[in-house]
């Protein structure tokens, strides 16, 4: 358990607020309000996984992201093709047993290294070396935990094996998306995040919602794809997961 | 149906032709029109400039003048909205708030009254010409009247309609804004004039005399040959 | 940079704005383009957009009404996760706390992601005073910083007023750029230059889009991914938030983030929404080892409980700026504040005082376009009107001539007899100025009107006279 942090100047600050609001300080837990409006739950309500995938595919065209579809059997070939399309390695991946379960060992551990494509698997025991490797990588590969159909967004939770920078430092980014992770929109992810917190008392220190490659419109409102984060991004949807 | 006309001071003093057209039109549609001569200004110029105390005096006179009415109709979206706003202005005032509320509840802008109360969509008008229409901000956004003028214009025989580009954008009038920030107002009205010209229309029509005075005054200064008409005048042509 | 960005007079700033033709083209283009994009993802796509606005409004109102409770909950949860929370009543207190952290960590190289509140408290000036190199990493902010701290002109697109040639020149002069003015090449150069800065920084500073009380989290919304590098690489992180920017739980955060991205840039979501909670966990490799949240009041609590409270609902999307017909023609710098447009015209006098910003509430036609698009339903044009009322009634800052005129209005308009007499006299009084049926050079208040437009001569027969005569005629 991490050590407890410090809080400074709180009482005078909050007392001023309650004074402005013309009432005593609120201290006890206040019940969660009964909201009058809840439109967010209506979006794509009851859509099937296939319908959600279709919604996502359409939106991918707007976010400069290629979407590939495959089943587990075809996954190594598709992944290989996409990585080669991005110019090959070095590749950095999170430390995740699913790569192995999904039959990618041979590609990641034999085939690519034998073709001089270095694959670095995140290893927290190596400390800052991980960041250096991510910075040098051409491709970062991660797995989406929740996928938002409406905005074509992948959701990633950081921990010791899933470094934050895998998704930001490499020049390109590939996300593997089990089809079963598809939900209509952000709403369902937010509900899930609350559930996890309520069940475990914990929240990942970093949760990323990533929608395509990085971009900016700060120069004359021209959209430039690829600013600080990845310049290109691809999604690979795996049908039988 | 008895209609009490809230003519507005601009119409009374500068655009009496608009007032005449409004009366004739309403009568033709079967209304009996009265004009209480004790009506003054609705108070909007002072109110919008922040002089609420001064404005309230005018508002009280208007409430007294109009509270007997069955329907109050005004050929100006902005001024009609001002009546609708009175209950907020007098909020908490035990005497005037309820009186203001009653007034607000029976106040209508002219085209709104024709379409929503009289239930008439074709007033039987004929107007030959190419027309574009300025949707005034207070009328559309604050009073919420968007469709009625369109419906009525669409049914005018002979009228060719072209939509105004950027129609939702303010013309730069804004009451005292037009004189307080004249440099900005000039840019705004110039963009509006430019869009009016783009339509190729011979007539710019609107439902708010103040906006029309602004755009029309600028077009006249610039020597543009486009004529400005109040929608009452178009609907009253046969 | 403080809130006030200019010492020039309002009218002079407006003149400059009006004559900056590149800026005006850029602003008009941005408004038109953004308008279409915003409409597509709001009213077109979501048939129940009004329900979304109602929900966003009820969330914001609930939080403001219970702000002390949620801030307490937030701070407890951050401390539980090992983060440090400092409540700063003033900008000086905020800066002193941050100065302390900088000194203790011996931080010299600082990277920042875009934050309006750090502009508001002039944080960069303090950090530079401390001898730190502070690098703004949002591309737009970076451009402005390189250009000798040119102020932002838009809260979402800060360098909107600059064209790519100007940007190329700034890059050439300041960071040895030798290529063309194409946005791709400029952006790539910034990427390479800033990548170095990210990797060597010892302190990262961010703003906060929304904090989440229930979990002690906060989220950052960007398209560039700069905030992610600011929060992943340096060992120490300081986040500065305006005290009102929080929500009860992830569920409300979701709604407001959705409203923000749709309203600000017409996107369903931006490329990166990042939810951060405390410092890195024990075995994590990236993320800060030390995390500080600085919660800033700086005048906000004085707005709470007043008729202006609803401005604190603001989520800084800039939609009001993108539809404002006045901003369209004068640009952001004319407002003289880091907060331009309708939101700025309401907020700047409240946070910065009427002395510096009393013209802003009048720089509006009260057309209501801002109110119509506001995703959290702030009645912006009504708040501008309330400011006018305060300026007239409490501050006494209205010009004398206007006061006299309005007094006369009060008398004249309130009295049917006076109105009748005055209006009857109008054609006579205006006669010397009337040519044909118009007035081209009016006296008094008409002077400004007739500078640019004709004014109609008063009707010889008033409408009321026509009506009366007609009744007499027994028609």
Automatic annotation (TrEMBL), chain A:
Describe the location of the LUD domain by residue ranges.
59-238
What is the name listed in the Swiss-Prot or TrEMBL entry for this protein? Lactate utilization protein C
Output the Pfam families linked to this UniProt entry: LUD_dom
* PANTHER family referenced in this protein's UniProt entry, alphabetically: LACTATE UTILIZATION PROTEIN C
Q: What does this protein do?
A: Is involved in L-lactate degradation and allows cells to grow with lactate as the sole carbon source.
Q: Which domain of life is it from?
A: Bacteria
The record's HAMAP family line, in alphabetical order, gives:
LutC
The protein's gene is named lutC
Q: Please report which protein family the annotation says this sequence is part of.
A: Belongs to the LutC/YkgG family.
Q: Which SUPFAM superfamilies match?
A: NagB/RpiA/CoA transferase-like
The record's Gene Ontology biological-process terms are: lactate metabolic process
TrEMBL record, chain B:
Give a Gene Ontology cellular component term annotated to this protein. Answer: cytosol
Q: Name one GO biological process term.
A: lactate metabolic process
Q: Which domain of life is it from?
A: Bacteria
Q: Which InterPro entries match?
A: Cys_rich_dom, LutA
List, for all copies, the residue spans of the domain called Cysteine-rich.
3-84, 131-215
Instruction: Report the GO molecular function annotations.
Output: oxidoreductase activity
Q: What does this protein do?
A: Is involved in L-lactate degradation and allows cells to grow with lactate as the sole carbon source.
The UniProt similarity line reads: Belongs to the LutA/YkgE family.
Task: Name the chain's protein.
Answer: Lactate utilization protein A
Question: What is the protein's species of origin?
Answer: Neobacillus thermocopriae
User: Which gene holds the coding sequence for this protein?
Assistant: lutA
UniProtKB/TrEMBL annotation, chain C:
NCBIfam families, sorted:
LutB/LldF family L-lactate oxidation iron-sulfur protein
Q: Where does [4Fe-4S] cluster 2 bind?
A: 324, 367, 370
Q: For this UniProt record, give its keywords in alphabetical order, as a comma-separated list.
A: 4Fe-4S, Electron transport, Iron, Iron-sulfur, Metal-binding, Repeat, Transport
* Official protein name in the record: Lactate utilization protein B
Recorded hits in Pfam families, A to Z, give: Fer4_8, LUD_dom, LutB_C
Q: Does the entry feature the keyword Signal, yes or no?
A: no
**Key word Phosphoprotein present:** no
Q: Which positions in this protein are listed as binding [4Fe-4S] cluster 1?
A: 314, 317, 320, 374
Q: Which HAMAP family match?
A: LutB (MF_02103)
Q: Which GO terms describe its biological process?
A: lactate metabolic process
The chain positions of domain 4Fe-4S ferredoxin-type read 304-335
């Amino acid at each position: 358990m991490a050590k407890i942090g410090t809080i400074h100047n709180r009482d005078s600050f909050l007392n001023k607020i309650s004074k402005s609001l013309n009432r005593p300080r609120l201290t006890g837990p206040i019940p969660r309000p009964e909201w009058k409006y809840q439109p967010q739950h209506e979006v794509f309500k009851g859509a099937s996984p296939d319908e959600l995938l279709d919604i996502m595919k359409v939106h991918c065209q707007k976010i400069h992201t290629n979407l590939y579809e495959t089943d587990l059997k075809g996954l190594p070939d598709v992944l290989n093709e996409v990585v080669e399309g991005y110019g090959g390695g070095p590749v950095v991946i999170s430390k995740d047993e699913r790569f192995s379960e999904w039959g990618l060992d041979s590609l990641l551990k034999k085939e690519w290294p034998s073709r001089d494509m270095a694959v670095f698997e995140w290893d927290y025991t190596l400390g800052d070396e991980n960041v250096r490797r991510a910075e040098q990588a051409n491709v970062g590969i991660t797995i989406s935990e929740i996928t938002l159909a409406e905005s074509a967004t992948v959701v990633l939770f950081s921990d010791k094996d899933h470094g934050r920078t895998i998704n930001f430092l490499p020049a390109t980014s590939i996300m593997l998306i089990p089809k079963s992770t598809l939900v209509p929109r952000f709403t369902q992810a937010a509900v899930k995040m609350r559930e996890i917190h309520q069940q475990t008392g914990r929240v990942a220190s970093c949760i990323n919602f990533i929608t395509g490659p990085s971009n900016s419109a700060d120069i004359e409102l021209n959209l430039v794809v690829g600013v600080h984060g990845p310049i290109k991004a691809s999604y690979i949807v795996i049908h039988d997961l | 149906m008895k209609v009490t006309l809230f003519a507005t001071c601009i119409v009374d003093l500068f655009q009496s032709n608009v007032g005449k057209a409004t009366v004739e039109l309403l009568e033709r549609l079967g209304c009996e029109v009265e004009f209480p001569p004790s009506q003054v200004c609705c108070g909007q110029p002072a109110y919008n400039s922040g002089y609420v105390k001064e404005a309230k005096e005018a508002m009280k006179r208007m409430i007294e003048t109009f509270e007997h009415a069955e329907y109050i109709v005004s050929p100006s979206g902005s001024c009609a909205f001002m009546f609708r706003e009175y209950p907020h202005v007098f909020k908490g005032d035990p005497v005037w708030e309820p009186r203001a509320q009653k007034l607000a509840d029976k106040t209508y802008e002219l085209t709104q009254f024709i379409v929503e109360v009289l239930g008439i969509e074709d007033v039987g008008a004929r107007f030959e010409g190419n027309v574009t229409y300025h949707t005034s901000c207070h009328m559309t956004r604050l009073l919420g009247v968007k469709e009625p003028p369109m419906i009525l214009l669409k049914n005018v025989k002979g009228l060719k309609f072209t939509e105004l580009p950027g129609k939702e954008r303010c013309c730069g009038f804004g009451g005292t804004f037009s004189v307080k920030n004249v440099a900005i107002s000039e840019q705004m009205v110039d963009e509006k004039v430019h869009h009016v010209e783009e339509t190729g229309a011979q007539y710019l029509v609107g439902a708010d005399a103040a906006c029309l005075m602004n755009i029309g005054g600028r077009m006249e200064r610039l020597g543009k040959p486009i004529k400005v008409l109040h929608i009452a005048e178009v609907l009253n042509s046969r | 940079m403080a809130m006030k960005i200019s010492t020039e007079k309002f009218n002079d700033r407006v003149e400059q704005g009006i004559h900056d033709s590149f800026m005006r083209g850029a602003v008009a283009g941005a408004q038109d383009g953004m308008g279409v994009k915003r409409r597509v993802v709001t009213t077109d796509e979501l048939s129940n957009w009004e329900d979304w606005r109602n929900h966003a409004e009820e969330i914001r109102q609930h939080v403001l009404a219970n702000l002390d409770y949620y801030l307490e909950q937030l701070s407890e949860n951050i401390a539980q996760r090992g983060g440090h929370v400092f409540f700063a009543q003033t900008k000086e207190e905020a800066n002193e706390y941050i100065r302390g952290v900088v000194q203790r960590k011996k931080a010299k190289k600082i990277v920042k992601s875009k934050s309006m509140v750090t502009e508001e408290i002039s944080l960069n000036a303090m950090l530079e005073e401390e001898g730190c190199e502070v690098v703004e990493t949002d591309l737009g902010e970076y451009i402005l910083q390189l250009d000798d701290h040119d102020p932002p002109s838009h809260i979402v697109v800060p360098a909107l007023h600059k064209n790519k040639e100007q940007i190329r020149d700034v890059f050439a002069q300041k960071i040895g750029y030798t290529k063309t003015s194409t946005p791709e090449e400029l952006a790539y150069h910034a990427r390479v230059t800033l990548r170095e800065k990210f990797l060597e920084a010892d302190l990262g500073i961010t703003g906060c889009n929304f904090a989440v009380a229930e979990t002690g989290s906060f989220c950052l919304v960007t398209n560039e991914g700069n905030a992610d590098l600011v929060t992943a690489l340096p060992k120490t992180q300081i986040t500065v938030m305006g005290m009102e920017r929080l929500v009860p739980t992830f569920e409300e955060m979701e709604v407001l983030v959705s409203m923000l991205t749709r309203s600000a840039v017409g996107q369903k979501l931006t490329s990166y929404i990042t939810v951060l909670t405390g410092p890195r966990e024990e075995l994590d490799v990236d993320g800060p080892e030390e995390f500080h949240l600085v919660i800033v009041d700086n005048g906000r609590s004085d707005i709470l409980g007043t008729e202006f409270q609803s401005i604190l609902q603001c989520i800084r999307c800039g939609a009001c700026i993108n539809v404002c017909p006045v901003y369209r023609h004068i640009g952001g710098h004319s407002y003289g504040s880091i907060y331009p447009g309708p939101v700025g015209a309401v907020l700047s006098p409240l946070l910065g005082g009427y002395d510096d910003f009393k013209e802003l509430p009048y720089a509006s036609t009260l057309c209501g376009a801002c109110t119509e698009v506001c995703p959290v339903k702030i009645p912006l044009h009504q708040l501008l009107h309330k400011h006018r009322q305060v300026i007239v009634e409490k501050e006494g800052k209205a010009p004398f001539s206007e006061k006299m005129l309005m007094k006369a209005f009060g008398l004249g308009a309130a009295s049917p007899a006076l109105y009748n007499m005055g209006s009857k006299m109008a054609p006579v009084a205006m006669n010397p100025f009337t040519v044909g049926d118009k007035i081209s050079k009016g006296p008094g208040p008409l002077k400004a009107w007739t500078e640019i437009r004709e004014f109609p001569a008063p009707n010889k027969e008033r409408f009321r006279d026509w009506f009366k005569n007609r009744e007499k005629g027994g028609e």
